[in-house]
Amino acid sequence: MRMLRLPLLAFCAALAPTAGRADDAADIAGARTFAEPVMSTECDFAGNADGYNNVFHFTFRSKGQDQDSPDQKRTLVQLACSSGAYNFNSIYLMRDDGAGHWELLTFAEPVADYDYADEEFSRLKAPPKVSGFVSVTQITNSEFVPESKTINSAAKWRGIGDAWSAGEWRFEDGAFVLKKYEIDPTYQPPGDEAADPEAPESYVLFDAAAAGR
After folding, report:
1. 196: left (phi over 0), alpha (psi -120 to 50) or beta
2. pTM above 0.70, yes or no
3. 38 is a domain residue
4. Between the CA of residue 61 and those of 67, 106, 156, what are the distances in Å?
5. 192 belongs to a structural domain
6. Beta-carbon neighbour count of residue 157 at 10 Å?
7. Does residue 188 carry a pLDDT above 90?
8. Is the dihedral of CA 28, 110, 163, 175 positive or negative?
9. Which residues of 135-144 are buried (b: 16+ CB within 10 A; e: fewer)?
10. Domain ranges, residue 150
11. What is the DSSP string of 74-85?
C-alpha cells in the first residue's frame, strides 16, 4: 500500500500548541490581527485560538547587499487556520523587522492533469502533466525547518494516506520559493486487489534541483 510519508513533526503539530519566547504571544496576536480581515471567512481564528501556532526569528542577506550593511531580520508566524480528522491547515505571515509591517504569504503549487484508468482511482492512464501553477495561502500539515529556512507540507487525501501531496518551499532572497512538489493521486484498491506493480510510488510535478535551478 502506498502510504503518505508524513513528517513526524507535522503529525504531532496538530496535537499541542507551541511554547516559545516571552514576546511570541504578541507576535501571534499582531499577525492574527493583520490576517483576520482577509482570512476570517477561510480560517476559524476563534476556534483555533489555542491551536498550533509558531513564531520563528531569522536573519538573511539578499543578493547584491552591500557587505557593510547589517543582516536583514524577519519574523515568521505560523497560524492555525482549520483542521479536520487527519489534516490541519496553517497560514504564514512574515514581518520585516526593519519596516515593521506584516505580509500574508502565498505559496506556488503546480496544477496536474491526469485521468484514472479504473473506477477505484487506483491506476492512471498516463503520468500526470503540469498544466500551470496557482498561488495558495493555506498549507496542509506543514512545518518550518529553521536550519534550512524551509517550509514542508504533507497532505493526506484521505485518512489512510494512500493518496497524498507534498511540497517544499525554501526562503531565498526575501521570499519562499517552491523547490519540490510531489503527489501520489492513486488510491489503494478495495479488498484483496493489489495496486499496479508497475505504477511509480509517486510523481514529482516540480523539482528545482533536477531542473538545475
Report:
1. beta
2. yes
3. yes
4. 9, 21, 35
5. no
6. 19
7. no
8. negative
9. eebbbbbbbb
10. 8-61+72-109+134-174
11. EEEEEEEEEE-S
